Amino acid sequence: MAPHSAPDSSRRSERSRVAILTAARELVTELGYTRLTIEAIAARAGVGKQTIYRWWPSKGAVVFDSILTLSEGPDGEGVELPDTGDLEADLKTVLRATAAEFADPAFEAPIRALNTEIINDPALAETYREKLERPMTEAKKRRLRSAKRAGQLAADADLDLVLDLLYAPLTQRWLLRSGPLDEAFADALVEATLRAFGR
Amino acid sequence: MAPHSAPDSSRRSERSRVAILTAARELVTELGYTRLTIEAIAARAGVGKQTIYRWWPSKGAVVFDSILTLSEGPDGEGVELPDTGDLEADLKTVLRATAAEFADPAFEAPIRALNTEIINDPALAETYREKLERPMTEAKKRRLRSAKRAGQLAADADLDLVLDLLYAPLTQRWLLRSGPLDEAFADALVEATLRAFGR
User: Fold this and answer.
1) Which of A45, A78, B140, B196 lies 20 to 30 angstroms, CA to CA, from A14?
2) Does the distance separating the beta carbons of B120 and A112 come in below 8 Å?
3) CB of B179 less than 8 A from some CB of A
4) Residue with the larger pLDDT of the pair B141 and B10
5) Tell me: the pLDDT tens digits for A135-144?
């Protein structure tokens, strides 16, 4: 049996792989994670179920990889935040963009489905952090370190805490639909965080 | 058919109702929400499946009510935050207690299961907010308004934003298991938020 990992992209069946990942992303958006089945993905992609099971051990694994293909580079490589020299302006740009992504059904539905799984599956959560979240977190920290050097952020600011204050309220309002998720909210988060950790 | 609502607590079958809710809470902790069935709840509670369906329309509804019984008063009535006159100390007490609850499997497992449902069910999310969250939020805002009067919080502070900054990072670390959830983190959240919104 093949190892449980994403297929080598050089294989001839690359087209099937793309079709499967596209089908998984579309179907999780249309049906939600619970009602999504491997059968439905196979039918939409025009492949046999066994083709999917040859490459992925579970429904969760396919959906996870389908979301990885949404991110810009492989494993977030090359992700950089804007650095115009104005931390407040740059963070507002980034948080407004994040809020806009959360408002886009094509983008948010598969990530919502994945989050449901992550909440109940510590191992999948760890994979998620390693593959998707860590590269983004590193890019954010690079921007914050640049701000420290520019004297726009307190030299002793705990960067994990700064990122929690910026992003956790945004993520929570999105996941729990507990309040408006607009540019005013994004801006208010940046302003409050910089009052707490500005120079 | 009986209306889809929790039974009148005055009915003779109050003992069955309590047994069902206890079974639901225990089983969601032991099995997780996905593997939990109405059959299993009925067997553990020593009642027939039809007894459960007479009172609750779905698995989600039983689990939801089983969690309501965890909160102190009916619908959170009478919930008050400590008010010693020292906002920072009181918020640290409350956030440390919240972090400790999240570390207690008997408490956190059913709420984790409920959150999974809420993320995918906007109607259930609305019920959750109305029944469980709103009374707690009102109690927290009463404490923050008292702090405004005492000059310990900026008079124009947006209380929803203050609560988001205090609680969303805590909730996110718990739900996604993305970092340590200890007293140091609770204290750091209170200190950062008060730097942003203190007088």
Assistant:
1) A78
2) yes
3) yes
4) B141
5) 889 999 999 9
